[in-house]
Amino acid sequence: MQHLDLRYQQELNDLRTVYQEMLLLAHGMVQDAMRSVIERDPALGRAVVNVDRSLDQLELRADESCLRILALYRPVAGDLRLVATVMKSVTDIERIGDLAVNIAKRGFDLSRGAGLEPLPELGSMAEVIAEMLPLVKQGFLSRDPSVLMALKDADERVDRMNREVLSQVILALANHPDQSRRGLALTSISKALERVADHAVNLGEQIVFMVGGTDVRHGGVKG
After folding, report:
1. Could you tell me the residue ranges of all domains in the chain?
2. What topology does CATH give the domain 2-222?
3. pTM listed for this prediction
4. C-alpha dist (Å) from residue 65 to 62, 73, 87, 111
5. What is the pLDDT of residues 85-142, one digit of tens each?
6. 3-class DSSP state for residue 119?
7. Cα distances (angstroms) measured from residue 6 to each of 14, 65, 73, 75
8. 129-184 pLDDT, tens digit each
């Protein structure tokens, strides 16, 4: 029985590790994607696209681990919430990776020719997100539900900057309609960053559930 318990705890630890690996990889993808845009570096953008395969493999590994734990050990209480949280969270993390790929691909469009260039707000949005994802990791490891409030505050800042980008691009296109392709790339990047922040908030909500069993989505339902 002791041997079985040790194996069970190792499985849970491995699950926590995969979660952290995915979060770290997705965080790096977003940062590299934005650098590829700002520095007009298609090679870095292609690297982001290629790394996405590794994130997908980690998601599959996490899913398999969750199913194995549920089938073999029938976890309850906090352990069950941990498994459920990771099962939900890896989908959000994988989508963050997909959004980073989208950003990198829009950067390909901006690296060709001249015209509308990335707005300062895009760099600021990336800086806020660079703070959000490590905050998720901190909240997960320390089992701290209070990170959700900080994530929501950051998300509101990103939302405001996204609206500012859209407003500026619309104004620029009114004066330079020939720049529609570049304008679309800029708004797509801004929207992708805004969605990354949304997924970070989702991850924070899942941490709240993991810690206390409270589902705070859609107004909050006791778990």
Report:
1. 2-222
2. Methane Monooxygenase Hydroxylase; Chain G, domain 1 (1.20.58)
3. 0.90
4. 5, 12, 9, 41
5. 999 999 999 999 999 999 999 998 888 777 667 788 999 999 999 999 999 999 999 9
6. coil
7. 12, 16, 12, 14
8. 999 999 999 999 999 999 999 999 999 999 999 999 999 888 888 888 878 788 88
